[in-house]
Amino acid sequence: MSPVISVEHLSKAYHLGQIGTGTLSHDLNVLWAKMRGKPNPMLRIGEAPLRFPPNSANLGGEKEGGDGESIWALKDINFTVEQGEVLGIIGRNGAGKSTLLKILSRVTAPTEGKIKVKGRVASLLEVGTGFHPDLTGRENIYLNGSILGMGRKEIDRKFDEIVDFAEVEQFIDTPVKRYSSGMYVRLAFAVAAHLEPEILVVDEVLAVGDAEFQKKCLGKMEDVAHKGRTILFVSHNMAAIISLCSRVAYIDTGNFVAVGNPNDIVQSYVAHSSNNNSLNLLDRTDRIGSGLALVKFLSITGENGMELDNIISGQDVTVRIGYEIPSGIVIESGVCFLVFKTQLGQPLFTCSTRLFNEYVRLSPRGSLKCKIPRFPLNQGDYFVDVYLKRGSDSRDILDSLQEAIRIHVVGGDFFGTGRVANVESSPALVQHTWSMDNFV
Ligand SMILES: Nc1ncnc2c1ncn2[C@@H]1O[C@H](COP(=O)(O)OP(=O)(O)OP(=O)(O)O)[C@@H](O)[C@H]1O
Ligand SMILES: [Mg+2]
Questions:
Q1: Secondary structure of the chain: what % helix, strand, coil (to 5)?
Q2: pLDDT reported for residue 50
Q3: Whole-prediction pTM value?
């Protein structure tokens, strides 16, 4: 059987500081910065643009400043997908996952290489792709159906099911630009999954929406897979990847590191990320304290015990602090605390064993676990400081590390309403309710 997707020597360069970076607003920002002699706002902090083709000898070597340069989001990728396969794609932030899906959905063109895709593709990429903001939910369903080559009758038949799944009956004749982000994604997913595409491409839909909706999406994708359709699914949720996919590709900085059995690939990915964390900490020489204890690693895991690369706002997480003290010593009155702070060093909240009037017993080797239900930070990057102390004397620090780990939080439906708080005004998220008294 010939593959439904085949990709040969695919590379993609993004040209920074030039027109055509992706969206008009990005381009205007770049132009505006250039006119004022400011650095290119599209470049990430600490990231210099590269200026060499993917196959050249100095790959990964020389970096240059200036604008009008390129970064290679994908480098010489080769793979095929057979009909009915559910291919998971995993990798760190910026690895190139979304770029790959955008190329396969023909939202953006490859710089080099060839792709062949057989059949109708429905994609759920970033929020908003495929929908026209001024059209109503109803009009968008018909528009997307006809783009997929379906007749009006065929769409009529699917219509109720789509609206029902998305839970937007009341708003079906409202322009989608008035939808909350949760409603928008629900409808976009419902359209992509119900219009019977031959290939379904889904990018990280599980990061949005509440737990209930995530379950529904996974269930729907399972249905689609059982009908023998092909699915490409990007997610940072390893449990979802393992339960849904028949094969997984692990991408790192634009390269395919490994492709194969979901359990094996996820394990090597998780091991890879945790290795990095512990190596970094053991190399740190800027510790403060008596040195009687050594904090060896900090890791963050989700409900299923899998290490997380990203935390979703509102997700239950556990922070694990691994430490060592000399053999033969036991510290009965240990205190541990974690300070979560912004990248600028502003503390946001602290988790401390002292707040529970408890001392922890530190034996030569072990780890402490701090469970944080409904992780209360908005999307963004944060740091965590860790302190191990003895007793109530705040000066008796056994070991401490500032910025022991950096965490990346992805926006989620913390409030369960599909609404997301503005990051600038609300880095911390607090569950709350409102009521009203009218006196006039
Ligand atoms: N429109 C664009 N213009 C310039 N650079 C881009 C553009 N889109 C993506 N990039 C860059 O390409 C690289 C790959 O990005 P991509 O969005 O594919 O990563 P990803 O694996 O989807 O990451 P995440 O897990 O954070 O979604 C990154 O370095 C990113 O900064
Ligand atoms: Mg992405």
A1: 25, 30, 40
A2: 39
A3: 0.60
